[in-house]
Amino acid sequence: MKHMIFTGAATALVTPFHGDGSIAWDELERLVELQIEGGIDAIVACGTTGEAATMTTEEHTQVIRFIIEKVHGRVPVIAGTGSNDTQFCVELSQEAKELGADGLLLVTPYYNKTSQKGLLESFNYVADSVKMPCILYNVPSRTGCNIQPATYKELSKNPYIVAVKEANGDISATARTAPSVTRCSPPSRSGSLPSCRISAARATS
Question: What is the pTM assigned to this prediction?
């Protein structure tokens, strides 16, 4: 049985900065509280809107730690730790796990334009190394790489790969993927496209 991270809606939290480029911690704490007060079901730290691609490794881990501490177990925290460097992804994911993250958000390796076989090897390696719930993030418009339905089918066999955040804009691909995984969720409350679930957890924007 795969571990269900959350059901409902998750917010990919922004990371606010001051004019000098330093992280605005007070504002970040305010945003965390605002989301929880609003009834959100989970929070994603360091996703695309969290400026993960523009932060240093130290800032990345600091933000994950800070959000986990401020949430304090009230809702699950999913840490964005994806990278086009598989070994770095493992190291960052392990650190997020040690910090107390409930799950990981793993974007497809960007820029490298890997093959479908490469995606299988990379995602399985990360999931098997960290041994915690992983949500795959497919956003080819940003990464230049798209997870195909047949690849989802193979990835669904990994017990640690539990859900998908699908942003490829291809409803027909989603329909082809659905029969090969556990089930497919209805559209999220954010209004995004339906997300195919590899387990009972719902991947939302």
Answer: 0.85
